[in-house]
Design brief:
Length: 353
């Protein structure tokens, strides 16, 4: 009797599983590759004009380093703002129109090389109009086949199951919009900004912002920061737990970083300005740079040099503040191989020689 019961249960389970699978429409997404000179071009390469590299068109959200944006109603640009090749990506689209309540799985990318970009037509223009949404329900986009989609009515994202994508998706907690910037348009040698920002500077900066972002977005950093003795701008008053949570929230929700290269000093920060020196851009991929990067982040969210949100304070012989916390978590990330961008997968190792 027990054997018969087990057989019936297993048979029922198999029947339900098969039924569930069969209920998903058999729709195959179009797959693209952007992995060679024949199917993509590269951004931030030596010889590209500074004007282009620092233009508004090269801004991107840190949480969407695979950026898809409309060019017009029928054309989109796909770009990889990470300095590493990324594979097995699914691009999703949320359409602001009646009847499209869930994100739609629009197409797949087999591989996109580091800093590659390419324009393509929406896949429904010349191919099947049938797609699946994220609930695996069939969606018919034939209504857009002739007209395309108004660029103001669509938002894109990316997803995937591999380890690199999962690390990059952790950046979705951050609201940072990244733009690379020339802060010395007059090439004035008397200030602390580099005369120009180069393609090499920007390539390295793209990896630094990703690795720095995953540190700040991590639960490890959040928990250590909230448990840290953080001193406010008066230099003496400790922040309450709620005030530390608010400061952390401001870091996550910082809307913009204009990233530039400094000289004579290790960093400059304030408002949207985030400047780092050559040695930071050169070293971050091998060792922690938390003292400098966290110091400048502290400035960008409104803290002065009296607070240990910039320079550490010594309390009973222990260094406290945002920089020591960042240093500890960065070292943990190195020890545990948690960074998305490493010397092994960065696409131009000569950038760090």
């Amino acid at each position: 009797m027990k054997l018969l019961f087990k057989t019936l249960v297993c048979s029922s389970f198999l029947f339900l599983s098969c039924s569930d699978r069969e209920s998903i429409p058999n729709i195959e997404l179009k797959t693209y590759s952007f992995d060679s000179e024949t199917n993509s071009s590269l951004m931030f390469q030596d010889g590209e004009s500074q004007e282009v590299m620092t233009s508004e068109s090269r801004m991107y959200e840190i949480g969407k380093v695979i950026r898809v944006k409309p060019v017009d109603n029928k054309t989109i640009e796909v770009a990889n703002f990470a300095p590493i090749d990324i594979e097995d990506i699914t691009i999703t689209a949320t359409i602001e129109a009646e009847g499209f309540l869930k994100p739609i799985k629009l197409f797949k990318i087999d591989k996109i090389r580091a800093h590659a970009k390419q324009e393509i037509n929406y896949p429904f223009i010349n191919n099947s109009p049938l797609f699946l949404n994220t609930n695996n329900q069939e969606v018919d986009l034939s209504v857009f086949k002739d007209t395309g989609i108004d660029p103001n009515n669509i938002v894109f994202d990316f997803t995937g199951d591999n380890e690199i994508i999962q690390k990059l998706k952790g950046l979705s907690k951050l609201k940072w919009v990244i733009k690379y910037h020339d802060f010395d348009t007059d090439n004035n040698p008397d200030n602390n900004w580099a005369e120009d920002i180069t393609a090499k500077d920007i390539r390295r900066f793209t990896g630094l912002m990703i690795n720095l972002g995953v540190v700040f977005a991590s639960d490890n950093f959040k928990n250590e920061f909230i448990n840290e003795n953080i001193i406010g701008n008066d230099g003496t008053t400790a922040l309450s737990e709620n005030e530390k949570k608010e400061a952390y929230s401001i870091i996550l929700n910082k809307p913009r970083y204009n990233c530039g290269k400094v000289v004579n000093v290790s960093g400059l920060g304030g408002g949207a300005t985030f400047g780092l020196a050559e040695h930071v851009l050169r070293d971050y991929i091998r060792k922690e740079t938390g003292f400098i990067t966290a110091h400048e982040i502290g400035h960008t969210i409104g803290y002065n040099h009296s607070s240990n949100m910039t320079y550490p304070h010594e309390v009973d012989g222990v260094s406290t503040g945002i920089s020591p916390v960042t240093t500890r978590i960065m070292n943990l990330f190195f020890e545990s191989d948690l960074y998305p961008v490493t010397l092994e997968n960065y696409y131009l190792s000569s950038d760090f020689e």
